[in-house]
Amino acid sequence: DRMHGPNAFGTTLLLIYCCWSNICVSKGTGLLMGILRQMEKFLKGQEIRFTEGLRIMKSKLTNLQNSVSKLPQADQSSSQSSCPPLLAPAHGRKFGSKYLVGHEVHFTCSQGYRMIGPGTRVCHENGTWSGVSVVCKDVSVCTSNPCQNGGTCVEALNQYKCTCPHNWSGSQCQYQTQTAPPEWSVMNDPAFSRKPRCAKVDRAQHCSCDAGFHMSGTSDNSICQDVNECEVYKADRGGPLCGHACVNVPGSYHCSCPTGYKLLADGRNCEDVDECLTQQHNCSRGTTCINTGGGFQCVNPECPRSHGNVSYVKTSPLACQTNRWRYNLNRKSHVG
């Protein structure tokens, strides 16, 4: 019989040993030759299976190498797991305390300040933050000191103008000139004059004025004169500062309203006061208060005169009645 299975190789070696040890010599050399041929077939089968297994193993190893090569390379020199800490800007706040890759940090500015830079920054894989540092800047345009050569910045209507000292002119006092004091400068009034603040810097004396004043005179004898904001913005494209009247005061201005009007919350425009609604009238009893622009009137309308058989009786301050008609002083209506 043919030998199969895992023990075939061991059995074959045993038979060869028996034959050579004269145990099975009686059966002749034919049996030995058959065993040798079967062993040869067995070895060829083992060789084929081994070759096939080796080919499969090489194929799997190649696929594994290709998969590994597609993974991102772990370059410790260029990849970081976190970014350096960020600080909240001056006059602002920071939201977010994680600095890992992919995390965001947000910023806001306090009231009265505007943000310069991105409101959100993201941590990149290379350990750096997106964008640039955030700065909270004062919304006041005069904070940046746009006026040069001792000029004074005057704010109004979301803009500014530079009031320049003597011998300087231009939108930012950048040109040196020889001119007389400006028309809007309040002169010859002690209440509208101030002594400048002076300090020596690098052996040179520098003087400046308070807000609402500008430098006048020479470098040796200078004085701060009031800026008449009402005149500065009188012919401005944005319109006058006040809806009715502008009152200049030392270093500033305010708006006023005519009698019977009140100043609105914007500090510029006026609104009529309803004296009748707010009980600010002096109408006597039996009369009616009628609000008018800037004032009021006390009225006491009379009923129509009687004629023929028709007579009128006043039933209210604004209504009369007869036996057939109720006469409203604003309109007539039939009652019978």
TrEMBL record:
Gene Ontology CC terms, in alphabetical order: extracellular region
Gene Ontology molecular functions: calcium ion binding
GO BP: cell adhesion
Matching Gene3D superfamilies: Complement Module, domain 1, Laminin
Principal location listed in the UniProt entry: secreted
S-S bridge residues: C109-C136, C164-C173
Record InterPro entries: cEGF, ECM_structural_protein, EGF, EGF-like_Ca-bd_dom, EGF-type_Asp/Asn_hydroxyl_site, EGF_Ca-bd_CS, Sushi/SCR/CCP_sf, Sushi_SCR_CCP_dom
Signal peptide interval: none
CDD domains noted in UniProt: CCP, EGF_CA
PROSITE patterns assigned to the protein according to its UniProt record, in alphabetical order: ASX_HYDROXYL, EGF_1, EGF_2, EGF_3, EGF_CA, SUSHI
Chain ranges of the EGF-like domain: 138-174, 226-271
UniProt keywords, alphabetically: Calcium, Cell adhesion, Disulfide bond, EGF-like domain, Glycoprotein, Membrane, Repeat, Secreted, Signal, Sushi, Transmembrane, Transmembrane helix
Chain segments annotated as transmembrane: 12-36
Domain Sushi, residue spans: 81-138
Compartment list: Secreted
Name assigned to this protein: Fibulin 7
Provenance organism: Sinocyclocheilus grahami (Dianchi golden-line fish)
